[in-house]
Structures are given as structure tokens and as C-alpha cells.
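Hi C.,

You asked whether I'd gotten around to modeling the 345-residue construct. I have! Everything is below, sequence then structure, no commentary in between.
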Amino acid sequence: MAHRTGCDTLCLVARSPRRPRVSDIAAQSGLSRATVDRVLHGREGVRAETVAQVERAVAELERQRTQVSLSGRTLLLDLVMQAPERFSTASRQALEAELASLRPAVLRSRAQLSEQSDPEAAAAVLDRIADRGSDGVILKAPDHPLVAAAVAQLAERRIPAITFVTDLPTSRRAAYVGVDNRAAGATAAYLVTSWARRQGPVLATLSSSSFHGEEEREAGFRAAMADLAPHSMVHEVTDTDGLDTTMRAAVRGTLEAEPGIAACYSIGGGNRAILDVFDELGRTSRCSSPTTSTLTTGGCSAPGESRRCSTTTCVPTCAAPAGCCSRRAGCCRAARPACRRRSRW
């Protein structure tokens, strides 16, 4: 559908002496310079989707103004994430905050963020990146053949893809950045069984069964629960996209059907909604999430060391690395009797 912008924000950008260069906006948006110029000057015949692309590009350049002003070759990184907005926005902000620290290299980032888990949409975004070019991709997407094929296309174009938080283990990605998800799930099982006043059914909530990281966390959780609390059944809620509205409805349905559930491992987000449902139904909840802060609260007993705990260091095993779980620090002591019986979960 054709769209005329009128003299809106983009027109003001076009007239501003400090505006981003058309070439920078074109590189940031993946559009041609001619198209960007038409959008900036409010000419007719431009699709609304194209205007939105230019608006996003201008906003990104404004946030990265220091990087834009630097001379030298600019490296463009693409952040592609399918996750709840609060998480993807925090990830984008963290990436943008680090760009200036990488000098003398000049880096800028472009973000393609979505809240829905959609392998086809993720593959389409990656295909467009492969066509227009990039110096690297940071990717959080479902573990699906379509996405793996798109990552392979990036590799053919010599564009490295780094998976973030959740992996694509059979793809041609360059590396994975994130915690040991099976260990994180096992840690959650340890915390849930430590906090529970009695053994009983437990709830595990996921955003999508297609995310490898969430699948690994659940596998680690189930394996450890089978060892630590073999009589506790694990009920699963999944395919909610980690959004509060869908998570709330799914968790409420499960809790109403299973009145014995009093503990929850939140793997895929929607934590506020989950806790609200427990409160609304009058349940005393013992909930663990994969975030460092939540695990630290339950997994460490030495206050001075709590800031050093994480999903990788608070795994209650003999092989736990040095740090807050070291023998000297006094953390995770409750796990050591079990640790002497089992070398590792």
C-alpha cells in the first residue's frame, strides 16, 4: 500500500543539519539511498512498511550517534531475536552500550526483534541479511531446519552467526554464547526440592518447545528431579512465547486441573504472570527461574559471595568451578552430601 509521510518526524530529520547521512540510513535499514531519500522527503508511492524501516534505522542511528560520527570502516552487526520485548530490548540496549568500548574498531548494530517464535520468519530475516550483507549476526531463534538452512547461507557468504542464550547445535553457526542449560535446569531442581515443604507435583513453564536452550533446561530439570524427588511428577506448560497473557492462561488452566502443584520452574519467561496466578488461586508458590538473581537468592548462603553466583557456578556438584560454590566460600553446602554420592547430575 502506497504511503505519503507528510512533514512528520522524518521530514524534520531530512531538514536537520545534524541528521544521519542518507548513506548511513540506507546501510542501517538495508534500503537503497534513493528509497531512503524518497521517505525522508515525504514523497508519494512509498509503502508504510518501508517508512517504518527508515524510522527504525534513524532511531538506531540516533542511539548510536557516537559511533556514527567516527571515521574509518564501519562494521555492522545484526541482532536477530525472537523473545519477549522486555528481554530483547534489554539485550539490544546492552549491545549498543558496549559498542563504544570496542574502539579502535567502529561498530554499529541493527536489530530485528520479534515476540513470536516463528522459524519461517526468522529464516526470512536471515535471508535478507545474507542478501544485503553484514559483518556478523547475533541470533536467538528456534532450533529448526529452516533456521539452520538460513545460517548455512550466511556461512556461505562468510557472515558469522553467533547463537545467544539458545543454541542451534547442528547448524553452521560460528559459536554459542550462553550458560550450560542442562546444568541450569539441574540447579533449578535442586533449589525447588530444597525449598519445597513436601514432595509433590511441580510445574515447568516454557515459551516454546522449539528453543534448544529451553529444551535443554527442561531435560536437566527432569533428570535431576527424577534423582532428587522421584515421586514428584513434572507438568509442562509450553508454546506461550513467554508473554504474560498467554502464560497466565496456560498456567491457570494447569493449576486448576492439578491442585497439588505448589512449585514451579519458569524456563521461558512470564514470571510475573505465573506468580500472579499462584497468588490468585491461593497457592503458596516456590518458583525458580533461570535468571542469575533468582538462583542466587536460593542457591547461596554466603551474603558476601552472592554477587558471584550464577547458573554455571551454583550447580551443586563436586565438579563445580571455583567461585561462590567453592569449599572456602561456604555456598551450596547442602549439596555436598549428595555430591559425595554422585559425581555429577
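If it helps when you're writing up: The CA atoms of residues 80 and 289 lie 24 Å apart.

Thanks,
B.
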